[in-house]
Sequence to fold (251 residues):
Amino acid sequence: MLVIPFVPLLLSSFSHGWKWPEIIPHEWSVRAWKYVLTNHSQTWEAVWTSIEIAMVVVILNLFLALPAASVLGRYSFRGKWLVEGLLYAPIIIPPFVSVMGIYVTFIRYGLTDSNTGVIIAHIIPTLPYMIRALVISYQTLGLKWEQQGMMLGAGSLQRFLFIVIPHLLPGIIAGSSLSVLVSLNQYILTFLIGGGQVMTLPVVMLPFISGGDQAIGAAYSIIFILMSGITLFVMDYVLKTYYNYRGTIHV
Fold:
């Protein structure tokens, strides 16, 4: 059932002028794939740029989300609901509301038309997912394990590396997976902040989907799906390996 929606996409990528009401393409061609897989199409450059930006965004999100999630997950204080609302606002507020404000601000600070500006812009819609995943992990961790480690003589760094991080690892993987997928799917932010100079796969792909060559758009879509699917597979593999390792240690 999951594969069925992708069958027309695959057929379209090998078609030449597939139009309604034809059930299958009347003419076949590998023209779209030849274009997509050649160097002058910028496909591989766009794929690498997309992955590079997503990975940097994940690392920065971890540094920002760990302290925020620790406070939100383990402590109660006045105005906590307001802080949570501000941190989760990018998930709730429509992108168009904030994009133009971000764009104007980045122009003032000279962050447009650069990878750095795009990376900072991608943090805004991805950080809430990382924070939420880590908050749940911190809520189940509490403070008792660290307090016990302190009583046994463990320093703050030892407690963080050997108590906190192993417990947070599933949340880190979940938050990283969501951050990667959200970053890979960003088109408006990348197009405006990058100014057409930062070419990610959505920026290269969307013109063909929205009114250009449908066959090339379908081929790009398949590459995009494979890129996202491989990312999820790697995250899932790491998570299963981690749990298997913990099970071996406990035995």
